[in-house]
Design a protein that fits this description.
Layout (H helix, E strand, L loop, with lengths): L1 E5 L4 H12 L3 E6 L14 E4 L5 H11 L3 E4 L6 H6 L1 H21 L4 E7 L22 H20 L2 E7 L1 E3 L15 H9 L6 E4 L11 E6 H14 L5 E5 L4 E3 H12 L5 E4 L8 E2 L4 H7 L8 H14 L7
Helix pairs in contact: 1-7, 2-4, 4-5, 6-8, 6-10, 8-10
Bound molecules: nicotinamide-adenine-dinucleotide.
The site of nicotinamide-adenine-dinucleotide has 27 residues, from helix 1, strand 5 and strand 7.
Length: 325
């Protein structure tokens, strides 16, 4: 199968491309390198540098490469940024996704996988969070994903587009060759490891007075290679119909537990300081991934935090400046 991967030069996209190629699929990456890195793109993938706001560029890529399926990772991705600059999200994220969907429709691409998010669940009534949980987006970012999910629903009903919406909780870890390198970095594990590398003085804990056992927020960490495998399973299952899954490990770790694990794995001191809570951070977010385990046999290979931390640390040690040469 030939798969066009938007955002395939970014963190999760590049590792999914790597896993698709390992699995024998043909891949075309479409990325504007806004956050992605040319060196993150697997050498066996075709690469198109293009922007999803440019409908003609998408049309040209689909006409030239004729993919059977699209995986759509490319997006603005930051909750906090979306609160400050909502139109990047309620505007660009949605219109870029719409451009891609219209082009896919016109070029007869009938399989589509969307990177969605745990930020759909700002006020969860049950923990762990399963797919029946009420959707309450926590930000314009979450709302942009919700609207794309709804578009896909209607394109399935009206046009027979088969889709999978995959709602990741905290993606983390690395493969041997690819890892996480964002500017600015906002994700907890790379930030902590940058402290271990001596690139930051300390790690800021956003609040230690939450109603959790140690007072810090609890999150579900899912290994990026396991996420990539979930995409491949979902892609193969699309012939049997569209589907939506929450993707996490089913276990929560507090911020302090993550820091302690990083200290153990790196053997380095990691100074911390406590700062004010971030507005809109729920105390606990843990996924139930029973549905994808049951329906597709998804079995995460790296569910434990130690392995996640070790693999991330190995990548950061080998690439202390990320992809920059
Ligand atoms: N990282 C997480 O924990 C997490 C959790 C939930 C959902 N997600 C979603 O997963 C997807 C991938 O996340 P990531 O962490 O790999 O992000 P990332 O920023 O590393 O990757 C996104 C990629 O998309 C590209 N891109 C952005 N806008 C583009 C545009 N207009 N045209 C073409 N390319 C464009 C960027 O250059 C980048 O390579 C995103 O949709 C994100 O919302 C991520």
């Amino acid at each position: 199968m030939k798969v066009l991967v938007t955002g395939g030069a970014g963190y999760i996209g590049s590792i999914t491309v790597e896993q698709l190629i390992k699995g024998g699929e043909e891949v075309v990456v479409f990325d504007n390198l806004y956050q992605g890195h040319r060196d993150a793109v697997h050498p066996d993938a075709a690469f198109v540098q293009g922007d999803l706001k440019d409908r003609a560029a998408i049309d040209a890529a689909l006409a030239a490469h004729k993919p059977d399926a699209i995986m759509h990772f490319a997006s603005y991705t930051l909750v906090g940024e979306s609160m400050q600059h909502p139109f990047m999200y309620l505007g660009d994220n949605i219109t870029n996704g719409l451009n891609l969907l219209q082009s896919a429709h016109e070029h007869g691409v009938k399989k589509f996988i969307l990177s969605s998010t745990a930020n759909l669940f700002d006020k969860p009534e049950r923990m762990p969070i399963d797919e029946n949980e009420r959707i309450v987006p926590g930000s314009p970012y979450g709302e942009s994903k919700n609207i794309l999910e709804r578009m896909l629903y209607w394109l399935d009903v009206t046009q027979g587009m088969r889709y999978a919406c995959l709602r990741y909780f905290n993606a983390c870890g690395a493969s041997e060759e690819r890892g996480e390198d964002h500017t600015p970095e906002t994700h907890i594990i790379p930030l902590i490891l940058q402290v271990a590398l001596g690139q930051r003085a300390d790690f800021a804990i956003f609040g230690d007075d939450y109603p959790t056992p140690d007072g810090t927020c609890v999150r579900d960490y899912v290994h990026v290679v396991d996420l990539a495998q979930a995409h491949i399973l979902a892609l193969r299952a699309l012939d049997d119909g569209s589907r939506t899954y929450n993707l996490g490990s089913g276990r929560g770790f507090s911020v302090k537990e993550v820091i302690d694990m990083a200290r153990e794995v790196t053997g380095r001191p990691i100074p911390t300081r406590v700062v004010a809570r971030r507005p809109g951070d729920p105390a606990v977010l843990v996924a139930s991934s029973d549905k994808i385990r049951r329906e597709l046999g998804w079995a995460p290979k790296y569910p434990d935090l130690r392995t996640i931390m070790e693999m991330a640390w190995n990548w950061h040690l080998s690439n202390p400046t990320g992809y920059a040469k």
